[in-house]
């Protein structure tokens, strides 16, 4: 399993996930840069993602939805802040209300820093999400973000091996 560590700090309002992959940073970067590859790993296996728009550039926006086993769609977006290809990117990740990707201001938004560094012949990826408040972080923890994100990230090994 690629995910090697998960921690959260309510005082700092952060959720950190660390994963190790048997592929170079450039290959892991390609997973996030290509929406068709990203669709295969962004959601947990039972909630596959569909990326409608994907602009992984500073100021860019990515719109996606995940589909439940019952066919319900859950909408989300990224607003890309910075890009350091192939070593990472930063973005704000939020929930959307509908297929127009209208921001859902009732649910938390996280500011995310994703980094890819060479490690033991492969890549160590670190995902750090920061929330506006401890309550916002607790809300997504209660929604199952740790389990869902871990299941999603753990799909990357199979994708890059194929």
UniProtKB/TrEMBL annotation:
<dbReference type="Pfam" id="PF08327">
    <property type="entry name" value="AHSA1"/>
</dbReference>
<dbReference type="InterPro" id="IPR013538">
    <property type="entry name" value="ASHA1/2-like_C"/>
</dbReference>
<comment type="similarity">
    <text>Belongs to the AHA1 family.</text>
</comment>
<feature type="domain" description="Activator of Hsp90 ATPase homologue 1/2-like C-terminal">
    <location>
        <begin position="22"/>
        <end position="160"/>
    </location>
</feature>
<dbReference type="InterPro" id="IPR023393">
    <property type="entry name" value="START-like_dom_sf"/>
</dbReference>
<protein>
    <submittedName>
        <fullName>Uncharacterized protein YndB with AHSA1/START domain</fullName>
    </submittedName>
</protein>
């Amino acid at each position: 399993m690629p995910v090697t560590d998960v921690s959260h700090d309510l005082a700092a309002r952060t959720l950190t996930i660390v994963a190790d992959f048997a592929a170079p940073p450039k290959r892991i970067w390609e997973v996030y840069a290509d929406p068709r590859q990203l669709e295969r790993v962004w959601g947990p296996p039972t909630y596959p993602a569909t990326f409608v728009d994907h602009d992984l550039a500073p100021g860019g926006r990515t719109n996606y939805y995940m589909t439940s086993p019952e066919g319900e769609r859950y909408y989300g977006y990224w607003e890309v802040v910075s890009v350091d290809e192939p070593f990472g990117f930063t973005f704000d990740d939020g929930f959307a209300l509908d297929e127009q990707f209208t921001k859902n201001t009732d649910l938390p938004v996280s500011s995310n820093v994703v980094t890819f560094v060479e490690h033991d012949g492969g890549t160590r990826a670190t995902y750090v999400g920061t929330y506006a408040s401890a309550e916002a972080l607790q809300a997504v923890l209660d929604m199952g973000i740790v389990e869902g994100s871990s299941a999603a990230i753990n799909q990357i090994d199979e994708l890059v091996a194929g």
